[in-house]
Amino acid sequence: MAKTLPKTDVVVVGVGWAGSIIAAELGKEGLKVVGLERGRERGLKDYSMIHDELRYGIRYELMQDLSKETLTFRNNMKERALPMRQLGSFLLGEGLGGSGVHWNGHTFRFLPYDFEIRSKTVEKYGEEKIKGLQLQDWGITYDELEPYFDKYEKAAGIGGEENPFGGKRSNPYPNPPMKETPLTKRFKDAAKTLGMKPYHMPSANMSEAYENQYGAKMAACQYCAFCERFGCEYGAKADPTVAVIPFAKNTGNFELRAHSNVTEVIHDGSKATGVKYVDVQTKEEFIQPAEIVVLTSYVMNNTRLLLSSKLGRPYNPDTGKGVIGKNYCYQILPGTTGFFDDEQFNTFMGAGALGATVDDYNGDNFDHSDVDFIHGGSISINQSGARAIQHNPVPQDTPRWGKEFKKQSIKYFTRSMNIGTQGASMPTRTNYMDLDPAYKDAYGQPLLRLTYDFSDQDKNLYNYIGKITDQIMKEMGASFINDRSPLEHYDIVPYQTTHNTGGVIMGAEKETSAVNNYLQMWDAENVFVVGASAFAHNGGYNPTGTVGALAYRAAEGILKYSKDGGALV
Question: 3-4 and 285-295: which strand pairing?
């Protein structure tokens, strides 16, 4: 029998970037907020002596325990989905701060094109160009979202230089860009020679000491190369546990409950009354009543919780109707590995978002009239730091083990580099999420089922942009480059990117979207669903900057709703 607790103004489910921003913004305005985090509490003290690649980089200390909760996967609806038994393609964070603790820090703004992608594409190229794609506009424009991008960049202390293809900015980045290195300079010089417009990657690794609007003080980056999959013991990487959560607690209106796994949104069909959760240490069940419920968990968890709670209209891939689980998207990742026989580079040094980028082939920044895909991707060189266990680039004809592999690994450890692309992912009718009918988690809840495979759009984008990355690498002077494997079927095991999106998408119309542009559910006015689950497609960048902007937009909407009620328009 679940114990019912005293009612609160707002309950937040998941305390990463989105959850911490909601807690801070509502708490400072006097609303009482309870934050439920299924993992443990943590902060700077927990990152001391964290430079252990085996523990954190290989054995995933900061990630979700798949023996308790995972998801099932299949490429198409004719296959039987099977549980993901090991972390591979994407890394699901767990614990206070979520994936905002172990991220690299790339912090781009989605392009103006992204928010109006359907209307802009059809206007320029005609309906035929989007045939087979389940595209829709987001119900908000870049200009409307720009002030919220600005707020997030100030909270996270983003350093960078202006993107020549980006939307207009109301303010410059709050920090200067990170260091120029021989690698970033060589990439920029090569790109310029090829007629492109490179710029330094926007970074949440502090280029200098910084204090944000919440009074959080962050130190300058040490370029130690332990960002992705690690917490930063210097407090030099923007992280919710450093940048936002202390302020939320200091408002006196935010109560954090760690080890609290939410299993249900309780509702009467039109409004939520609270949530049910399990204390994962004692196994006790609790009901937390609330005036407003805010889901700020990861993409998969937001979608799964709504589906298992029977809140919203489940997506049906046969008819294309329904909205919860719709438009799951990932990313397409063409790139080039180059080898340099006569030069060495300090690639073992770096920071998560130390790099340079070109956007000449992102969004609609180039003419798509004669290509068989839409959108594109950001092309970057990222000097994040090559660590000894995971970094073993070798020429493609090298054996995968043995004497020759060791010899080539040692030789090319400092004589190789990679140019990568974050390619946009467009939604199709058959890429979606629902509940698995057979498998359950440790608490008896159905697992989320992911049905996903690459489309012709994805393969054509991959082939086109891969040739561009080859050109840049050759211009950089590589002795030779590895061939790229063709893009065939998506595989959930090898690591690719943790940039999953969709499932609770936003839009201007109830029939085709789950939430409005304040991320308020059409089907339950006191439920807000915040995160990359709201993306109607995935763009050519990391999603975090856009998630942060949407979180500030949602916080404003929640405050309005708390005063006036009703649907926000």
Answer: parallel
